[in-house]
Amino acid sequence: MSQKKLRWGVLGCAGIAKRAVIPGIQQSQTGEVAAIASRNEDNARKTAEQFQIPTAYGSYEALLNDETLDAIYIPLPNHLHKEWTIKAAQAGKHVLCEKPIALDAAEAAEMVAACEQAGVKLVEAFMHRHHPRYTMIKEIIQSGEIGEIRGLHGAFTFNSSKNTGNVRFNQEMGGGSLYDVGVYPISTARMVLGQEPEAATVHAFFSPDHDNVDMMASGILEFPNSVALTFDCGMWAAGRNVFEILGTEGRIEVPSAYVTRGNADDHFIVTVGGQRREVEVPYVNQYALQADDLGRSILDGTPLRYESSDAVLNMRVIDACLKSARERARVVL
């Protein structure tokens, strides 16, 4: 592996950046956080001091003009992803963009095209896909131990409904539970099956107290071979963070499917023939693994685990889910 480290710039001081992604990059083998920007320079400086980041900028443009930076992490509100990804690409920077990558598949495709034209890489930030437990789970499925897959179920819910100023509750900024947490069980099902869904049916609670974004959504995605994902996601419900794979001979349960805790909650359960076993997994920082996936691709030419085209496919599914929920109809993809 190359001894050079990727120099990252962070475009914004969002909570996910400070809570998880900046520490993840700093713990990665391939990268270092060299600069951070905010439209509020004082905020940028405070965050830089907190995380010992060498350079703070008072504008996003100034960060993109920093020729010493190799890659940019974008944790901005969803409606800004397209604009700043394209600007980062035009500045010659590789991009890790927070999920959902865009507001719809058309925007995502524009972003992919801009990055391809600029000769830079674009990755959607789904940290959970880089955790080794999903490789372990897929190996168990491929071994035939749980038989043929008959169904999947995923849920990701939390309650932040009282925080009415949250950007997640703003329609124009790309708010709503499908964008914020529904993307997780949906992307996990696509990853586990290695297939794209054929149709979506979703029912949602659009809250007038939260700019009529979907505060809760429940749905079914129809995959080939008569397999379905049932899922629910919500921002006004008790917390859950689970995924289950049901086979003809057994099942796999992931109790903390997307967020890891660095303890036994990260393990998963395999039940076959009434015998239940807990499979231990490594305690790793999945945000660091996410950064290293892009870092090794840039520095050493290692293929990305998930190309940018995957982000477009995932947004096609989200588009169908939102259309189904709004029209209360089954949508064929």
Can you give me a brief rundown of this structure?
This protein has helices spanning 15-27, 41-51, 60-64, 81-90, 105-118, 132-143, 177-193, 286-300, 308-327; strands at residues 6-11, 31-37, 55-57, 71-74, 94-98, 122-125, 149-159, 199-207, 213-223, 227-234, 236-247, 250-254, 268-272, 275-279, 331-332. It is of the alpha/beta class and 333 residues long. It folds into 2 domains: 6-128, Rossmann fold; 132-283 and 315-332, 2-Layer Sandwich (Dihydrodipicolinate Reductase, domain 2).
**What's the level 1 CATH class of the largest domain?**
Alpha Beta
User: Total helix count?
Assistant: 9
Q: Strand order across the biggest sheet?
A: 14-13-12-11-7-10-9-8-15
Spell out the CATH superfamily of the largest domain: Dihydrodipicolinate Reductase, domain 2
CATH architecture classification name of the largest domain: 2-Layer Sandwich
* Low-confidence runs of at least 5 consecutive residues: none
Classify the fold: give the CATH topology of the largest domain: Dihydrodipicolinate Reductase, domain 2
Radius of gyration of CA atoms, rounded to a whole number: 20 Å
User: Would you tell me the overall average pLDDT?
Assistant: 97
What is the first-to-last residue Cα distance? 41 Å
Helix content: 25-40%
Tally of extended strands? 15
Tertiary shape? globular
The main sheet comes to:
9 strands, mixed
Structural class: alpha/beta
Domain Gfo/Idh/MocA-like oxidoreductase N-terminal: 6-124
Domain GFO/IDH/MocA-like oxidoreductase: 135-253
Family: Belongs to the Gfo/Idh/MocA family.
Protein name: Gfo/Idh/MocA family oxidoreductase
